[in-house]
Amino acid sequence: MKTMFKALMPLLALLLAMPAHAVQGATEDGYDLWLRYRPMDKAARVQVRAAASSIVAFGPAAPAGSAPASPVQAAVAELQRGLGGLLGKEPPLAASVQDGAVVLATPASMPALSGMDLKLETLGREGYLLRSTRLQGHKVTLVAANSDIGLLYGSYALLRKIGIGAEGLAALDERSAPKLQLRVLNHWDNLDRTVERGYAGESIWNWWALPEVRDRRYLDYARANASLGINGTVLNNVNSKPDILTAPWIAKAAAVAESLRPYGIKVYLSARFSTPLELGATKTADPLDPAVAAWWKAKADEIYKSIPDFGGFLVKANSEGQPGPQDYHRSHADGANMLAKAVAPHKGVVMWRAFVYAHEKPDDRAKQAYSEFKPLDGTFDANVLVQVKNGAIDFQPREPAHPLFGAMPNTPLMMEFQITKEYLGYATHLAYLGTMYQETLGTDMHTGAGTVAQILEAGAQGSKLTGIAGVANIGSERNWSGSHFDQANWYAFGRLAWNPQADARALAREWAAQTFSAAPAAVAQVTDMMMMSREAVVNYMTPLGLHHLMGTGHHHGPAPWVANLERPDWNPVYYHRADKGGIGFDRSASGSNAVAQYAPGLARQYADPRSTPETMLLWFHHLPWDYKMASGRKLWEELLVRYDSGVAQVDDMRQRWARLKPLIDARRHEDVAVLLDKQYQEAVWWRDASIAYFQSVSGLALPAGVKAPGMPLDYYKSLKFPYAPGRG
Ligand code: BDP
């Protein structure tokens, strides 16, 4: 007994030393996301309570038990829930301003604000101000905004501040307004509830049961998004079906829109360009045909009758087999403008995707979007945004920023990031994408307009439209995203949509504190894991600028050997071009000259392997295997080092996570540990298969100390995954 007690002593000591928030929730399943609101430690509770002991809001309160019907009701409900959880006691609603109250007010609901020099005009429609101040003689925590939705965003910001353990509220003075106007999720959700490139179960939209049955989850979805400032969602896949625009489906979309509206989230739909033709309503889908334009106009009117604040259409046209205006020898602008005219009277927008490439064109796939869209600059209607993927190929683990950013100054460009990890290990691999997003957003395009973030924020000449989209990683699994850490990518996307210049590390820290534990040791360790995670994936999958090496169709696992697909630009060999002489895609002037699509400053940098960042070396250059790298190693050796370091980084993450066990609730700790083990195995697989293949083409020996692949190349080639998820 005595020895047992002795053995348990260190654990006991650890438990006693831990703050209250560290060890709760042994059975947490991740459903609560970052809105967990677990009790703070006592000292902090006392402090915060003094500044948040009641809530004062104006306007009708929500009837008990019913879902909020307005942003203010949503804000009150969230403050009660959040402060109730964090402080252990739900603050009551007070009828008038009193000491210690959280007061939610706009100049309209509280005219006194106008005389207080709060500079609310700097906040725009959606911004907010948080301030400890005196109001009607009382010391209060003021959440002020110009609109009710600003109050909701401000309330979430206040809860976030408290949740991450920021110092007391006594000297609070913070203002924030979103830098982009449209902050939108793109669901690639099909009408049969499958999700294209989804790894988190079925679609959360239970289309079959809608519109009568509204899953309670829609409300939690709205809360999570509003907490980040996301204000739009495209409900269905860009590979769209005509049915979505028929009356029964419009009714379903309207029901979802109604659930999301109190949270400031507008619904958009992906439209298939040939819809009227396929529904038999017109004889063509030619955008210049008056009957076609009239059909779309009437359709828009019909949608707006059910969804008065409908956001508009997202369109994938003439891309990967989707129909589009080019089928009728019309331009992308002809197509987009026809749809834009249909929604314009209702203040809707068209988000027209620039993700186009055609195998009939022998040109480098990386060049095609720019070649097609740049000449159209300035020809789009005022309510069209061109939605551009972060890079010129396709959501690879690392891509240089798309050359279109900064190249179309007269057209509002919208960023499209992928949150779901189609090419970064599905929901299995830990890869925090905040760093990836920041890398693109922080790229100076050398056009004189600054970084991609600044270009997005500035928008187009003479237009106020700005925006960003993220392909959602949300599904019906309890933890929403397929793994706990993938929630961080939704979070980081949303926070960067609000402020594209935010710092990925700061966001990781915020997320970790709210999601796992606010204990400083846990936050630090989780943040460090997140910050190294994406580079680890790049290292074991696509180091040094390699890209598009994944398995065919499902995109799972390595397949650099694939060379037999119908379209050349679907084959990995098209991208890595490895042979006896060397490896990499020559996009300099001696090759495809894709570098010339960048502004001169950047083009010069990318044109020369010596000035190209090594992380993108083989994206832009084909180099001999013995090319001398900055490290002094030969390219072949460097490649091997990178593969090894990717695997080692996953092992490191695994060990860091194991050490966190005492600080993380048991179930989620176990969930993550299991996935890290699987990630490790898959990292080894990527390394081994890639080395086996590149060795087979280079004919080079493995230097001493490099572990040989575990299996012969043919083994890796023989692996098949007919049931991999996400095929839609
Ligand atoms: C690719 C996906 C495919 C999408 C396409 C797109 O593999 O499922 O339809 O992007 O963005 O990466 O349209």
- Which range does the strand content fall in? 5-15%
Instruction: Give the uncertain stretches in residue-range form.
Output: 1-5, 7-23
Structural class given helices, strands, pairing? alpha/beta
Roughly how many Å apart are the termini? Answer: 58 Å
Ions and ligands: beta-D-glucopyranuronic acid
Oligomer: single chain
Largest sheet: 8 strands, parallel, barrel
Helix proportion range: 25-40%
Strand order of the largest sheet: 6-7-8-9-10-11-12-13
Supply Rg. Answer: 27 Å
Overall pLDDT confidence = 95
Give the overall silhouette.
globular
Describe the structure.
It contains 21 helices and 15 strands. With 728 residues, the protein is an alpha/beta fold. β6, α5 and β7 (232-234) form a beta-alpha-beta unit. α14 (504-515) packs across α15 (520-541) and α15 (520-541) runs antiparallel to α19. The radius of gyration is 27 Å and the shape is globular. It starts with a helix and ends in a 10-residue tail after the last helix. The protein binds beta-D-glucopyranuronic acid (BDP). Beta-D-glucopyranuronic acid (BDP) is lined by residues 196-197, 238-239, 316, 320, 355, 394-395, 422.
